Amino acid sequence: MVQSFRITVIGVGNTFRHDDGIGPAVVQRLRERALGRPLPPSVRLADCEGDPGRLIALWDGMELAVVVDAAHAEPGHPGRVHRISLTASQLPPPPTSSHGLGLGEALQLSDVLGRLPRRLLVLAVEGADRSIGTGLTPVVAEAVEPLANAVEAEIVRHRDATARGVSSSDRSARSDESAQEV
């Protein structure tokens, strides 16, 4: 039987570059939780190092794509989460990814190719350390649990809105919230 996914959660990052591994860390936490409390069968959890082609393939045709990624900001506030909710008709560039080519380029290319998800939620976490090595810094590691909660809540909101016949993209975009408020 072929699985039909409607929601994809993509953890973008490199686990061998400290805080750049926040996306995969959140996806791993969601996988751990799903062992005791399964996610709906329409939800796919995926890791991606930021390759634009892979990102497009993962979110193409999705009703909702949630992307968790590390971000750079000057001045930075490590652990702060930027929440950006976009529909295909709203395409301002997201915060700068920690990858040379990545999320911004994938969004632009998806738009040109007509392969954007119906709704895209980006949770971009400001990092403290992008050097080579494993493990998140403590301030960024503290964001993993609230981000996993936020992703699960977004999945529930989408499911409930779909059941009511309301598009989850009708909600307004929010940005620049702290990890505790996500």
CATH homologous superfamily designation: HybD-like
Task: Write down how many β-strands occur, each being a DSSP E stretch of 2 or more residues.
Answer: 5
Strand content: 15-25%
Quickly give the structural class.
alpha/beta
Q: What is the CA-based Rg, rounded?
A: 15 Å
Helix content: 25-40%
How many helices? 5
Count the domains.
1
What form results from the Cα inertia axes? globular
Biggest sheet strand line-up = 2-1-3-5-4
- Mean pLDDT comes to 84
**What is the CATH topology?**
Rossmann fold
**Order of helices and strands, N to C?**
EHEHEEHEHH
End-to-end separation: 36 Å
In the CATH hierarchy, what is the class?
Alpha Beta
Quick one: biggest sheet? 5 strands, mixed
Q: Can you tell me the CATH architecture? A: 3-Layer(aba) Sandwich
Low-confidence stretches: 170-180
Organism: Streptomyces olivaceiscleroticus
Family: Belongs to the peptidase A31 family.
Keywords: Aspartyl protease, Hydrolase, Protease
Protein name: Peptidase M52
